[in-house]
Amino acid sequence: MDQDFFGDMCRPTMARPLLGLTVLVVEDSRYACDAMQLMCIRSGARIRRADCLASARRHLAVYRPSAVIVDMGLPDGSGADLLSEMRIASPRVSVILATSGDPFAEKVAIAAGADGFLAKPLASLAAFQNAILAELPPDRRPNGPRSVETVEIAPDPVAYRDDLAHAADLLDPLPEGAEVDYVARFLSGVARSAEDTALGPPVARLRHLLAERLTERIAI
């Protein structure tokens, strides 16, 4: 089981304020996960990844990370379900954060049990560090003022192409119902994270079309 070890070599510093922490990222997008991995590395934290609710639950049954960041839209359900479970778990994870590109997801995440919310695209190292540090006990934070790098994080473009290839695989053969809606939401989130303005409008139209078709199917 992961336990935060704060010896002389593992205490947080001004330059690496998350040193000694382990962050579990529950995220289905490789591009978004790559951004958080870079932020963790710059901050001194270790990172583990789960790409769905089932994988996250298996991980949490064995390990206890210092912080968990949960994407609200996952292939096997809503991140809100995992947030609710972690809120009442004992012992409780010190920091529970949610992330999404949907501006309406923040209220849902906080109501479900998240301590804070990270809006996509994730590019600010300062916002990432502050969201975690704000929920940590004082003895786990670096002492004194700290200077934060202002450089924006740039994830690997290959990870973005991997996300697009993954979406293409999910659409061949064309799935139905909730699976199609998931692919549309996944693509919308990936486009927002990568700030791909060309991909955004077609995906938005696809989501609208899917919503109409699903409503028609229910009516039938």
Task: Tell me what the structure shows.
It is a single chain. The protein folds into 2 domains: 22-140, Response regulator (Rossmann fold, 3-Layer(aba) Sandwich); 157-219. α4 links the parallel β6 and β7 (116-119). A 5-stranded parallel beta sheet has the order 2-1-3-6-7, with helices on both faces. The protein is 46% helix and 13% strand. The radius of gyration is 18 Å and the shape is globular. The longest helix is centred in the last third of the chain and has 20 residues, at 200-219. With 220 residues, it is an alpha/beta fold. α6 (157-170) runs antiparallel to α7 (177-193) and α7 (177-193) runs antiparallel to α8.
What does the secondary structure layout of this molecule look like, with pairings?
Blueprint: E1 22-26, H1 30-43, E2 46-50, H2 53-62, E3 67-71, E4 73-74, E5 77-78, H3 79-88, E6 95-100, H4 105-112, E7 116-119, H5 125-133, H6 157-170, H7 177-193, H8 200-219
Parallel strand pairs: 1-2, 1-3, 3-6, 6-7
Antiparallel strand pairs: 4-5
Helix pairs in contact: 6-7, 7-8
Low-pLDDT segments: 3-8
What share of residues are in beta strands?
5-15%
Order of helices and strands: EHEHEEEHEHEHHHH
Just name the CATH architecture of the largest domain. Answer: 3-Layer(aba) Sandwich
Question: What's the name of the CATH homologous superfamily of the largest domain?
Answer: Response regulator
User: According to CATH, what is the topology of the largest domain?
Assistant: Rossmann fold
For the termini, the CA-CA separation is: 51 Å
Q: Please tell me how large the radius of gyration is.
A: 18 Å
How many helices does DSSP assign? 8
* Strand neighbour order, sheet with most strands: 2-1-3-6-7
Just give the CATH class of the largest domain.
Alpha Beta
Q: What number of domains?
A: 2
- The number of distinct β-strands equals 7
Structural class: alpha/beta
Helix percentage range: 40-55%
Mean pLDDT, nearest integer?
85
